[in-house]
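Forgive a beginner's question, but would it be possible to get a protein, spelled out as residues, together with the matching structure tokens, please?
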Amino acid sequence: MFSPRKLAAFVAWAVTFGAAGAASAQSPSAPPAPEGPPAEADDEAPVRGRPVPRDDRTGHFSAFAGLNAVVPAGDLGSGVTLGEVASTGAGAEVGIAVGITRYSGLELRGQFVQLSATSDCPDCATQMFSGGMGLVYHATQAIGFDPWVRFGFGYRGFKVSGNFINLSSSAPPPGTFHGVDVASFALGGDFFPVPWFGIGLFFEGDVGVMAAAPSVEARGAVYGLFQVGLRIALEPQRKAATVATGHPSFQTATSNHSVFGSALYNRGAR
């Protein structure tokens, strides 16, 4: 049995322990220590930005020349079609262009075509010459392949000789027919094996109206042409083109690599 003295000491110890536990439960917890800024990971270091080609088209001149095959269609007037007088022919064209923006330019060009005779008019001979202006849009700039489209208008002449009387009793007399190409649309692409010299294919369609002819009846006749050809492009300003590189947010000119290096030729960027 416990003695009264031991019992009193046990009760005092229990009371003291309980009071200490209650005080500990009621005291507020200490606020968490503030977290410092996260350390920058090694793989988040700034990287070089995408190379930006220098604008080598705006304000610069270029030249082109080509060989083409031409298929005529439409009317020559007075009941005679152009296809009865002339058949597929071959020709050449030359032109110059000046850049308006990074991706567009204005072209001036001239063309000469010798059309062949047909079985309907074997003694007919037709020569075609034209000059025109066009607005050209380039899908890329300063890389190895340059797709482009052109829309233009211009003058076109047909010098026709031969006897048309076998085709129609009302056929116009031989002479020079003057037409206006009201719509000329071309699509092509040039590949540049070296920075300043390119070679490529093009396709073109032209629609025009005869404005003047040896006979009044031939005026207003509508003609059409389809052309396909091979051309060369000369762009000497592309020689010294460079690219600007840097952080994507801060494009700075820190590299003098040529835009015609193998890395850029394999790049899909404009």
In short: The radius of gyration is 40 Å. Confidence is low (pLDDT under 50) at residues 240-270.
